[in-house]
Amino acid sequence: MNKISIIIPVLNEVENIENLLIHLKDNASEQNLAEIIVVDGGSTDGSQAITQGICNRFPGLVTLIHTPKGRAKQMNAGALKAAGNILYFLHADSFPPKQYDSLILNEIHKGNNAGCFKMKFNHRHWWLRLVSWFTQFSWRACRGGDQSQFVTKVLFDEIGGFDEQFVIYEDNDFINKLYARDEFTVIQETIISSSRTYIKNGVWTLQYHFLMIYFKKWFGASAEELHAYYKQHITT
Hints:
- The structure is a single chain.
- By secondary structure, this protein is of the alpha/beta class.
- It is built from ten helices and eight strands.
- Strands 3-2-1-4-7-6-8-5 form an eight-stranded mixed β-sheet, sandwiched between helices.
- Helix 2 links the parallel strand 2 and strand 3.
- The longest helix is centred in the C-terminal third of the chain and has 16 residues.
- It is globular, with a radius of gyration of 17 Å.
- The termini are far apart.
């Protein structure tokens, strides 16, 4: 029987993690979930204590593990521990739709071994609404980690997991590998993702810097160069 392991990399997510974990439990059939693995990269804001409290409330469902920070490292560590044969990677500030588990399993049953949901930002700025609208399409340019990613464990292992050289851009690198294999589908239900990074940096400023990162990678910038640019220009 197919089972989903949800993997959530976390670093200082005290404002979101409890609500997200309860949302995940309340909007899925537990028979479809192997576990929810929260992978903490060294939070100092109380996220670990809150997560441990949820683990105690839902033993056997929610697990907290600790790794060095770095989303690629954290997600690979979660995948290594996962008992399910389907991995679902989720940002701590993104809330998938009701019955997200059944929606993912339906795609797996149809032979789609990887994919995501279309997305909507939790802000009404017209540009963010437009960007969200484009996520319904299958074009590679419309993808991002905040849409979440599901993938069979077999395919994940074949690809080699997330490239831990990338401190940023790890989601995009992974998605590129899936597209290269023609292994990606977009579920036409909506995940709600936070716009907080856009609000902190300014919508146009952040969009410009994301575009610069994309072009730098296109022209061969290293993982270290991308991270340095991100640290210099973007506030998280």
